[in-house]
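BUG: 3D viewer hangs when loading the predicted structure for this chain

Environment: internal workstation, default settings.
Expected: structure renders.
Actual: progress bar stalls at 90%.

Input used:
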Amino acid sequence: MSQVMEHPMVKADEHAVVIGCGFAGLFAAGVLAEHFSRVTVVEKDELHPVGAPSQPRRGVPQGSHPHGLLTRGIEIFEELMPGFCQELVELGAVEADAMSNFRVSYLGHTLSRPPGVAKAVLATRPFIEAAVRRFMCRKPGIEFLPECKALGFQTISAGDRVSGVRVASNYEKREWLLPADFVVCAPGRTRLAAAWLEEIGYSRPPEERLPLNLSYVSRHFRLQEGALGADKACLSSPSPTNPRGWSLLQQEHGSWVFSLQGYGPWRPPANADQFWKYASGIVPSDILELVRHKGKPLDEFMSYNFPSNVWQHYERLEKVPDRLVIMGDSLCSINPLHGGGITHSAEQALVLKKCLSQGTRRLPHRFYRGAAHTLRIPWMFSAAIDTALQDSDRKQPLHFQILSRYLERLLAIAEHDDSVTCTFFRTIGKTATPAELFQPSILWKVLKQSV
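Structure tokens produced before the viewer hung:
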């Protein structure tokens, strides 16, 4: 075991440490900076200088695939970082009106396109992340330790409170101790947090897991300006009768990302010839012609696999260490095909903000309960849809069966009914509650269709 030394530049007085520089970690750093004089963000990847061209980080394999923000995400970004979204657009991101600028087929139904349903801001993950980091760098007291990996938690002698984080440089064998009054652990889709808890004598949380075996392959292109008219996003999700999907989204600085998705054995190939053959079976000929023969490739084909929806139920643990919260994908990771991952992290930051405003007493318990409340509905909808998409013959929980059948009929109505499309898309964008999908006017339409 290498020697552990206290970091020479860090004292424990009013100091918070964040593990991970993804969205959850960045949002947490911004919130913590309002309560602690200094916040140190530990990140194992290299961080390019703020203002330099954004590039996918090694620790974020989903960074090469389609990204954007819908209305609720935009609202929370503005609450956490006033003026950010306008700044993001000024830097090169794309503003859009969903649905009038979106051409959407969802679960096999081509939705109507009413204007003014929701706002959207489209850009690559690295671009948005770099802009958030740029914003956070302006806050006094926030510092970054790139190319340093967290190794575990340090506790006080009683073991009931986390007092620091053990870290090491990627290039040195010795360990450093970062003393901390508070720690946020957000290292991404790993089980590190649970393992580190076990190392200091705590139980791993109960885990809920739904296998998906979802695969992506994406590539960025430059298209001629106006090639798709007013459309800024075209997409068709997998459906119960076709486990393959595709999307074409405009991103920053006039680039577009073209992506193929598939469940189970329907894995999109990263080989060029096989990729286009796969695409020809599901993508409309005009879109395929535009991208394949008129688009200028900006990078290589990039693959990404998402094996499972996973929820670590920390809210069910009776005993958790004080002064530590685990958030982001380390807490709950939901199918990215349904969107909302960035928004989920932002919502957890709002929960953390509220908890900190109420003091640190039993804060982890309060945080995990609040985070679970924000995750319950997205998890239920994702699980219901994903279960139906993967295997219609597999026995499903009754509430999943009911919800899946209801959504199928509701989306059939949304092909020609703007009001139903508006409500559905506002629900997806999290500016409406799922209960609105069951309001009397919509329920009546679904029931009439069922007769």
